[in-house]
Design a protein that fits this description.
Layout lengths: L5 H13 L13 E2 L6 H12 L3 E2 L7 E4 L1 H10 L2 H13 L6 H20 L4
Antiparallel strand pairs: 1-3, 2-3
Length: 123
C-alpha cells in the first residue's frame, strides 16, 4: 500500500487549479480531467484527497474531479513555497507524521505570521 505523500498532494492540487475548465461543459460542473497526467500512485493520493473532501468526483482516483472549497482552502494555506518549506520542516522535526488537518493548521500558522509581519495586523 502506498504512503500518503504530502508533497504530491500539494502538487496535484496545484495542477488541478491550473487546469482550465472545459468550455463545452454546459453544466458548469467544475470537473477537470487529469486522467492522462496521473500515475497509479497519484490515483491513491487522489483517493486520500477525496476522503478528506479536498476534491470530489465519482472517478476522482482516475483524475476526473473538482476541487472543493476545502481543497482550495487547503491549497491556499500552503501555496507559498516558504510557508510550505517551513511546514514540512516542522512536521519532520516532530517525527514526520501528521494528519492533513494538522499540516493545514501548521501552514495556516506560518501564513498568519507572515501576514502579521508584513501588515502589522494581528490575526
Amino acid at each position: 500500500m502506498p504512503k500518503r505523500n504530502l508533497d504530491r498532494i500539494r502538487e496535484l492540487l496545484l495542477m488541478a487549479e491550473e487546469t482550465e475548465l472545459d468550455p463545452d461543459d454546459d453544466f458548469n460542473s467544475g470537473y477537470i480531467d487529469l486522467m492522462s497526467q496521473i500515475s497509479p500512485e497519484d490515483g491513491y493520493q487522489l483517493l486520500l484527497m477525496r476522503d478528506e473532501r479536498l476534491i470530489e468526483g465519482k472517478d476522482a482516483n482516475l483524475g476526473l474531479f473538482r476541487l472543493t472549497a476545502a481543497g482550495h482552502n487547503y491549497l491556499d494555506s500552503m501555496r507559498d513555497e516558504g510557508v510550505w518549506s517551513k511546514t514540512k520542516k516542522a512536521v519532520a522535526e516532530t517525527g514526520g507524521n501528521a494528519t492533513l488537518e494538522i499540516v493545514k493548521k501548521i501552514a495556516v500558522g506560518f501564513l498568519e505570521k507572515k501576514i502579521e509581519d508584513k501588515t502589522g495586523l494581528k490575526l
